[in-house]
Structures are given as structure tokens and as C-alpha cells.
Amino acid sequence: MDLKPNTKLFNMSLEIARQVLPFMGKHSIPATPENYMIFYLYFEGSRPLVNETVNDFLHSDESWTEETTNRVFEQLFSPRANLRMMRLNEEIVRQVRDTTRVIIEETKAAAELAHRTSQRMDTSLKEADRMNVDSAISQWFASTLKDVRLINEANRNLGGSLRSKGEDLEAVTATLAKMETMALTDELTQLANRRAWDQRLASEFERYMLNGSPCSLMLVDVDDFKNINDNHGHMVGDQALKEVARLMVNSLRPSDFSARYGGDEFVFLLTRTKLEDAYKLAEQARKVIQSANFTIRGKRRPITASIGISCFHTSDPKADAALERADKAMYLAKSRGKNSICSENDPDLGKI
């Protein structure tokens, strides 16, 4: 299967990727996935921090240490980096992932070719050793055999080296896949994050517009969460959010998409679900949260949530329109005393 996209950008990034491992080997830099990413960005040339750090290293007598790797890598890919930098990094991650796949295929093919050539040379050498020839021809043949043996040994080394590079690149690809997952996962609750939600919401809305399959949204806000933080501290607040996330996921269906929207708000996409069925699922989730045995310093502390639900309509100009209705419905539930559910069909929604 041909893995190469027919684009100028991809070909350029592929050429960059081919330079990285030889360069790292020349300068005795460990071939870890993190270092591979750093030096790919160095050759790509768009990150001043990377270029400055690597150039300082090249002009010094110091070794590239694990501390150097961690410092540069964490600044580039920390989950706390700003949104614009995270998006740029995700583009680089995808680009390097695609190029490493191509290189893995190439190195595997080259290693197999080297191995087959080595086997053929071994056979030829054994046959040649059995031959009895005289004088000058014998000397010439002996010299040729020596050269062939050297080539054969080099071929074996090449095959081993290429296999090693392939393993290095497979490790890089696995790390990049993990990084992509991290970029779309909320660090605290391990649900999908806001970026993943936006992507999924847009794709489900597009699918709805094509086939009309019903899809509902649920927006959940933890009641009085600020009081939990103010009275018991952020660590307790974090535990409360993790518990609500766990309870919500367990109370819904495996096909439902769950995400932390931000702060104490969670959002859920209920595919192939009409509004009336979404209400039943929301009520089920509300009861589960209300009855949870959440304790603070040994004392039970009830947690409740207000929930707003909506669904896609063909008249919606964009997916966010349904989310806005769910948000208004959630605030209506709050205004009615919390720990309740409101739908976009509620007659009082226009007052919000």
C-alpha cells in the first residue's frame, strides 16, 4: 500500500524526517521518541526555542542530557501551553506521524532486501570456496572473495541497523499517537476535552444534516461547585468533578459521547436519540448523582446537578445552536432550584 500523500508539504517533511536519526547518531543523542520530535522540529526550522537550544548544544562540549530533553519537550507539548501553540504542535505531530510511517515501511523493505542479498552472497561464497583454480586466476579470485566477504558483512550490519531504526520509528509513532490522544483528553477527568467535543459535535451535526438521524445534547452543571472549592479546597473540588464524570459515564450508554466542557460543566452527545428519550436518560443520570455517596473528611456531602437538554434541528445554522439551547435550558433548571432538568421545549425558555 502506498502511504505517501501526493503533496509538496508531505515530501518536504519526509526529507526532513530522513535526516533526523543519522544526525542524532552523529552527535550521540539517544534515539528516544521525545528527542526524535525535538530534532525533527529543529530541521523543520519553525521553532525558535528548539533552534536556539540545539545550536547552543552544537557549539558546546556538553552532552545532550535527559534534562535538556525534558525542558524543551515539556515547553513544546505541555498540556498547559496556550491554545494556539497546542494547535500548531498537533499539526506537527500529525505531520511527523505520517512521515514516520513511510520511513518505517522503507526501512523494513530495505532490511529485508539486505537480508536476502546477504543470504545470496553466503551461498555464492560457499560455492566459490569449493572451486579449485590456479595461479593468477586463483589470486584474483581470492582477492575478489575477500572484497565480497567485506560487502557481505557490511550488508549484514546494514540490515541490523535498518531494523533498529525501524524499531526506533515505531516507538516514535506510538508516542505520537499517545500525544494525539492526550491533546484531546481532559487531564483531570480523562473524558474528552473541549477541543475533542467541538470536533465531534461538528461531525455529528453534519451526519444529522445528511441522514436526519436524531441526535440530542445534554449539558450538565454541578450545583454549588464554587462552595465546594471555597469551603473545602480545590483538591476536594477536583475529586468531586472526577466523581461526577464517572457517575455520568456509568449512567449513560457506551455509544454516548462524553466530554468536560470546562470548569464544572459536562456535555454529552446522545446519538440516535430523540428529545423525549434524552430527557429520560438525563433524569436517570440526575438521580445517580443525587444518590452518590460522596464524602468530605468522613462526612457525606450530597452533590447535585442541573441539566439542560436539546436536539439538532434542520433549521439550525450550525451545531452550536443546539448547544446554546441546552445551555439556556440548564440555566432555567438552575433558576428553578437546581437539581432538576429542563428541555429546549420548556415554555419558559424564552425568559432566559
Automatic annotation (TrEMBL):
GO terms for biological process: cell adhesion involved in single-species biofilm formation; negative regulation of bacterial-type flagellum-dependent cell motility. It catalyses: 2 GTP = 3',3'-c-di-GMP + 2 diphosphate. One of its GO terms (molecular function) is diguanylate cyclase activity. One of its GO terms (cellular component) is plasma membrane. Gene3D superfamilies: 3.30.70.270. Its EC number is 2.7.7.65. InterPro entries: Diguanylate_Cyclase, GGDEF_dom, Nucleotide_cyclase, Rev_trsase/Diguanyl_cyclase. It is an enzyme of class 2 (transferase). Residues 213-346 form the GGDEF domain. It holds the Pfam family GGDEF. It comes from the Bacteria. PANTHER family: DIGUANYLATE CYCLASE DGCM-RELATED, REGULATORY COMPONENTS OF SENSORY TRANSDUCTION SYSTEM. This is diguanylate cyclase. It comes from Dethiosulfatarculus sandiegensis. The lineage of its organism: Bacteria, Pseudomonadati, Thermodesulfobacteriota, Desulfarculia, Desulfarculales.
